[in-house]
Design brief:
about 375 residues; alpha/beta; elongated; nine-stranded mixed sheet; five-stranded mixed sheet
């Protein structure tokens, strides 16, 4: 389809608006909308939080004049289903817009072209594909959940220059500096779930919540679900990770008799048997991710030791690996980056470097896992 420079300018603004909901849309996609009439922007909106009205409705509600005869630029196809709010496609028809430009079609099977069809049936001119790659970059986790039934999984590891993530005892606080730890706060804030293992909880006793006011001061911000994989029931009820009242999942192959706080939900997830492409009995991480996807988690952040991170890689579930490299040496007896049963060069895991930058005194390397 042919788009003008003005079309691109308005869509760029819609994408900018969508980013305002980066840390708060959680189970929903990040969406922005711009209403244009007589070459002037008359309304803008973005989706703020699940349960709140969508971007198109916000733009219509805040429009400075009637939207009759206007063009709507939206980063995602207007919805067609009745959820907590009404269909945006029908609202645009009712408002009298004459043209809708969507950056991308909605991968949600409940929509998937149905929103555009409502508009077409009403005689509205519809177009899509303008700045599609930029729009897709807003919601990689939502797209994966809608198309594969799994959240996007990112693992964060801090290591020394000699590739060590913890001392032989398991001690790992703190490898990186304060700037890197602040960056991790951002990664937590943009994730619907944070996954860790019992070893990390028992040894480091972390809170694993978002504490920086840049995120928590937003009235729409919700803490991520903290997921602790504890196949041997080692985590005690007084662990700091349970102190925050937000939801925690304690994942194991069998229930524990320990008296955990009210915000802790024990989740039974089956174990993989030796021989199922794993070296020994481990939690079926695919089953865990499917459960998270069912609750609406688009993005999951893995903050764990070498064993659990290695398991995500081993089971082919990692989408992105973020490595913070600290300018220090920890010695040959310290623990490696991850535990992986690889014996030959042919079995190596391929990564693609997509970003590198300095964060304080540390180096942040972001890799896409090639599957």
């Amino acid at each position: 389809m042919s788009f003008t420079a003005q079309d691109s300018s308005y869509m760029a603004r819609a994408i900018q608006l969508a980013r305002k909901g980066w840390f708060t849309t959680r189970t929903n996609p990040r969406v922005g909308c711009v209403l244009v009439k007589d070459k002037q922007i008359i309304g803008e909106g973005w989706h703020e939080k699940p349960g709140f009205v969508h971007a198109e409705i916000n733009a219509l509600n805040l429009a400075t004049e009637s939207a009759k005869g206007a063009t709507a630029y939206v980063t995602l196809e207007p919805c067609a289903h009745h959820g907590k709010t009404g269909p945006c496609a029908e609202a645009l028809v009712k408002a009298g817009v004459v043209r809708v430009v969507a950056a991308m079609l909605d991968p949600n099977p409940l929509v998937a072209g149905k929103g555009m069809q409502i508009l077409v049936d009403a005689g509205i001119k519809v177009e899509h594909g303008l700045m599609q790659s930029e729009a897709e970059a807003l919601n990689p986790g939502f797209i994966k959940r809608m198309t594969k039934g799994l959240p996007r999984v990112v693992a964060k590891i801090a290591m020394s220059l000699d590739g060590r993530t913890a001392m032989a005892s398991g001690e790992s606080q703190w490898i990186t500096g304060s700037a890197a730890r602040s960056n991790v706060q951002r990664m937590r804030a943009e994730s619907g779930a944070i996954i860790t293992g019992s070893g990390t909880v028992v040894i480091d006793n972390p809170s694993m919540d978002v504490r920086e006011q840049a995120y928590t001061s937003n009235p729409h911000f919700i803490q991520s679900i903290r997921v602790i994989i504890d196949s041997q029931n080692l985590v005690e009820p007084d662990a700091k990770i349970f102190n925050h009242e937000s939801a925690c999942w304690l994942v194991s192959g069998h229930l524990s008799a320990k008296d955990y706080p009210a915000n802790v939900e024990q989740k039974l997830v089956p174990l993989l048997q030796a021989g199922d492409n794993v070296s020994h009995h481990k939690i079926d991480l695919t089953a865990l991710l499917q459960e998270l996807a069912k609750t609406g988690v688009n993005d999951a952040l893995v903050e764990a030791g070498s064993g659990l991170v290695g398991a995500f890689v081993e089971q082919g579930l990692l989408d992105e690996l973020v490595v913070f490299v600290a300018p220090k040496l920890m010695g040959s007896s310290a623990r490696p980056l991850m535990t992986l049963p690889i014996d030959t060069m042919q079995s190596n895991i391929q990564l693609k470097l997509v970003d590198s930058r300095s964060v304080g005194d540390d180096l942040k390397l972001t890799y896409q896992v090639i599957k």
